[in-house]
Amino acid sequence: MIAGLEANDASFLADLSNLENRISRVNKQITSGARINEASDDPSAIAPIISYQSQMDHINQVQTNLSLAQTESQTADGALQTASSLMDQLVSLATQGASSTTDASDRAILGQKVQQIEEQLVSIANTNINGRYIFGGDDSSTAPYTFDWSSPNGVVQNSSPANTATIRDTDGNTIVPRLSAQQIFDLRDPSGAPTSGNIFQAAFALGTALISNNQTGIQSAIDQVKAGATQLSQSTTTYGNIESWIQQASQSATTHMNTLTQAFSTVHDTDIPTAATQLTLDQTALQAAIAAHASLNTKSLFSYLG
Predict the structure, then answer these.
(1) Which residue range forms the structural domain that includes residue 195?
(2) Which residue of 55, 188, 249, 270 could cross-link 29, Cys pair, CB 3.0 to 4.6 Å?
(3) pLDDT tens by residue, 65-105
């Protein structure tokens, strides 16, 4: 008889321990909000949880990259709008300089204003955000140009014009998210010679012609400045397209993230109402089992679990 009681006690304690562990696990699920707190909670759920988390981490990185690119493109767009206004000023100065009523002294003054405008254009080419030169291409740590009127075209190029870095959306599509300063302000052919649309060269040619009172040169520079204005407009359009791509990519990333978050939640998160109900049932069963054992009821604990 004593051996039977000892066996019943051992069985009771084992059942009691299992029930207490289950109550502890459900309590943890409710307080943490996570259905899976350790692998043993549901081994089959570990693989999908890791997969969903990895995908969400990837999308988070994509969103971070897109956000940075969006800030840069918006800043670039604003900078190019300012440059466009400066190009309008160059056209106005060129028109004044080409007038037969303008003398050499006035043209020299106009030429000095052109120098100042080119210096401002160089400053725009060197626009930076937190130390990153947004028109620096692959070398965003170096100012692309230095203003130097004594140099050809009034500028010195400081860094490589390479611009190959891309950003990727969540579907694997890529885009080069910026233009380099050379692509915008300093167009050149493969040999390195300035081509039509070269803004720095146009400003330098105009300024030089005004200062030297070269009316033929001034007239020629007007066409160059207009070609530069057209080039700048095309660059602005390119940035508009980049901003549109980034916006669509960001929206797509948000959609993918929402889908993954919901799938992750289904596998990982606690169903609070269901867990609360289970906790109540387990606590009731525990109390009943303890009470029954205290009255020396020989039933197993699982008789009360239903």
Answers:
(1) 74-256
(2) 270
(3) 999 999 999 999 999 999 999 999 999 999 999 999 999 99
Taking the CB of residue 38, how many other CB atoms lie within 10 A of it?
A: 10
Decide: helix, strand or coil at residue 167.
Answer: strand
First to last CA, the chain: 28
- The answer to whether position 173 is within a domain reads yes
The domain total for the chain is 1
CB 229 within 8 A of CB 88: yes
Instruction: Quote the percentage of the chain above a pLDDT of 90.
Output: 66
Q: Is 124 exposed, middle or buried (0-12, 13-18, 19+ CB in 10 A)?
A: buried
**Averaged pLDDT, 152-156:** 95
Spatial distance between the Cα atoms of 305 and 284, rounded to a whole number of angstroms: 9
Contacts of 119 (CB under 8 A, 6+ apart): 147
Residue 221: inside a domain: yes
Q: Does the residue 42 lie in any domain?
A: no
DSSP state of 22: H
Q: Residue 122: which residues within 8 A CB-CB, separation 6 or more?
A: 145, 146, 147, 154, 155, 200
